[in-house]
Design goal:
With about 100 residues, this protein is mostly helical. Helices cover about 85% and strands about 0% of the residues. Helix 3 runs antiparallel to helix 4 (about 65-90). The longest helix is centred in the middle third of the chain and has 29 residues, at about 30-60.
């Protein structure tokens, strides 16, 4: 139930931010849209690969607190990898969108 509420709030804030900056997305060429889509999907796939792979490794650990700590670490590493991929390959117009508050 909490997951549905958090997902709804995330969608509301994301839609609000995209609508507020819709002029940025209207200026993108097809090449920039393609570059944005490919970089987003690559970042997402890389993060999922790291998180699922780390989950399989942490399942073998018997110590509960160490397992929880490693799971959090693996999630942070996956998100950091996604951030690195996005910062390297996203077009400059969209980088400005992400860096704004």
């Amino acid at each position: 139930m909490i997951g549905y509420i958090l997902t709804g709030l995330l969608l509301i804030f994301a839609i609000r931010k995209f609508y507020k900056h819709r002029a940025v997305f209207k200026q993108l060429s097809k090449k920039e849209w393609l570059q944005f889509g490919v970089s987003f999907l690559t970042a997402w796939a890389g993060a999922v690969f790291i998180i699922i792979g780390g989950s399989n490794i942490t399942d073998k650990i018997e110590i509960t607190w160490l397992k929880s700590l490693l799971e959090i670490g693996v999630i942070l590493i996956g998100l950091a990898l996604a951030g690195i991929i996005m910062s390297k390959f996203v077009p400059k117009k969209i980088k400005a969108f992400y860096l704004e508050n």
